[in-house]
Structure formats: C-alpha cells, structure tokens
Design brief:
The chain has 4 domains: 52 residues; 73 residues; 64 residues, Ubiquitin-like (UB roll) (Roll), CATH 3.10.20.310; 150 residues, Rossmann fold, CATH 3.40.50. The chain is built from 12 helices and 14 strands. It is an alpha/beta fold.
Length: 437
Amino acid sequence: MLRPDDPSGGRLSDQGSRDRLRESRQGSRDSRQRKTIGVSNAEKHPSSRERRPQASAAGQPSRRSSQPALRLRPPRRPSVQLGSPYEERSKLAERERAAGRPGSSAYKERTSSRLRSPVPSRSITGRGTERLEKSGRKIPKRSSSLHEQGEENTVEDVKLSKKSREQREVERRQLQRRNEERLRIAKYSGIAAAALVLAGLLFWGGTLIANSRLFQPETVHVQGTRFLTSADVEQVASIDPESSTVTMDTTELEERLASNPWIVRATVTTHLPREVTIEVTERTPAVKVESEGFDWVASSDGRWLGYYDEESSSLIDPTGTLPPVSVANANIIPVAGIIELEPEWGELVEDESLLNALAHLRGLDSQIVSRVLRVSAPSVGSTSLFTIDEVELDVGRADNLEEKSAIILAILEGYAGDVVLINVRSIENPTWRGLSR
C-alpha cells in the first residue's frame, strides 16, 4: 500500500524501507500462524483462548498497526471458572458419572449388566412401532437423559440379579430334590432286585430240595375200603414213585380215584417226609340182573360194577382195569321181570323199573331190607319185594317210603306168622292178607 506523503514517490529506494517491508510481511505471516494455532488451542482449551489474544496484542502493537491481519473468531462458549486442580477433576468426574462415560461407576455397572443380560435392549422405531400400535401392545418409552437411563439400568440390574439369585436357589433345591429322589429310587430298586434274586435262589433251592429223594413217597396208607384192597386203590391212584410229597398234586389223584366205578369219592393227603394217605368211600353192590347170560351187578346208587362170578363170589371188570373184586360179604338181591337191559361197566342204570326197585331198597327201613330175598319189577307200579318169610310186600311206586315202612313193620309185628301179603301202594288204604285157617 502506497502512502501519499511518501517522499520516495512510491519507490523503495533505500535499504531501511526494504527492511521495513520485509518485517511487515514477516509479521503478517507470524500473525496468521498464531491465529491458526490459537483457534485450535481455543477449541481444546477454552480457558487459554481468552488470554492468548491479550498477550499477542500487548506484545506486538507496531505490527498490528502497520498491517492488520484477518482474524477468525471461534464460536462463543460459556466461560468456565477455574478452580483448584482437585475441584476440576471432581467436577469432571461428576459430569462423566452423570453422562455414563467410560471410567465412571455407572458406565461399569451398565456394561456389566449388558454382559449379563441375555438379550440387549433395543429401541423400537419406524415399522416396529407401527406393528406394536396395530397389535395393541405398549411401546416402551426411552429415557429422556443418560442419567435417567443409567438409573433405570441400575434398578433393572438389581432386579435381575435378585431374580437370578432366587432362580438359582430354586433350581438348586429342585436339583437337590431330584438327586434325593434318584438316590431313593436307586436304593429301593437295589433292595427289590436283591429281594428278587434272593427269592429266586430260595425258590430254586427249595425246588431242588423238594424234588429230591428225601421227599419221594415210600409208604401209602389206604383207608375206608370194604371190597377193594389197598393194592387195588394204589393201582387206581397210580402214584409216581419219583414224585415228591411236597409238590404232589393231590387234586389230580382224587379225580383219578373218583373216576373208578367202585369209588364214590377220595381224599389224598401227604405227610412229610415220605408218607401218603388215601381215604376212599366205596359203592355198595345192591342188585343183580340177568342180561345176555351174565348176572350184572348194580350199586345202590345205580352204577354198573361188573358181572357176578358165583364160583369166586366176585365181580369181574370186563375192561380189565381192576382184578376181580370179592363181594362174598355183600347182600346182593336178584331182580326179576326186567327184560331189556344193556349194561356197561362204570355207566349209570337207565331202566326205570330197576331204578324204582333200587329206590325202595335205599329208602325202606333197614329191618325190612335185611329180610328181602328177591325183587320183582316188571313195571314201576308193579314192584314187589319178597322176604325170607315168604311175605310179599306190594310197594308199587317209590314214594312215601317212611309211611310205608311204618305200616309194614306194624303188620308184621302184629300178625307174625299169619301174613302172606301186605299192600301199601296206597298208604291211605293199606291192606294185608293172611293164611286161611
């Protein structure tokens, strides 16, 4: 810039003018550099920004007056009253703690809670908010400040930690109960398994001992026989000599004995170590009827026992199951008048006339039956009994046998030796006939 009162006419002729121009240019460059450095330092340290311009203005008045420089002013910021370094550090720590910056306790607590929390918190914006509004669910509100957010996170962390402790305690108790239950089940299972093994060993050992020779039947006692012999009963029973008195099936033996026509029922008992007792109830031979050249004998309850052999006074089994059975002491009464018979060993009597005669022999008084010599039974209504005194007892159908017995005994005792016929077909009007004198 040229000055109007310059004597040189705008030319720098002497050395001093050239030196002043050089210093002015150098001062403007230094001023611009200091301004640039001042702006950067003012942004970092606002406290030093206000003092530096005063120092520069006081230090170089001639350079500023000679050539003013362009000055860039930073934005105004609130001034900070400086105190002691300890107070500054405390205030800075409080601000960081409130803002949740790194290094503060709130920041550490929030970071640890985020690490513990399985699901990070996320803000709901945009389409997520619209979806929640449409579904009717509440939209969580965000904290208005970092300080409130830090406090909420701290409370949530406390709740979560408390809940996690309670949950861990509940899980620990549940695990303890499950372990106790497993131990109890294992204990009982072991006891049950040991008991089963012991029971199996005892059963196996007991079976071996029971089936050993110590309990094989050696002596058989037969009771209740009259016509059959002990050998006959043992033959029908067919006891296995290698069986055991402990495991013997007595029911099977009783059924086998009862299947024989001579035996009505049987009872088998075992006595340790090697004894068996058989008690039988036999049938009694009552009548004999001629059929096809043989005298077949029927029991008092109407069962065919075999045919009669007069020479040996025994009954013969046509099937050969039993040897001849002696019936020498039996009162076998012959029955006449029955024509058609088809007797079979062990089968029941089917002829009605014979069954009616057997019913009279079972139902009448024993004093009368013991005196009966023969029976005539051509039909049911014409059944007659003949005594050893040659008295005919016209008894007819086998009903009211007690009344008939009383009438017959009274007449026989009252008119002994004179009676030849007593008719008791009708107990309301009995009759008798004696010898003519």
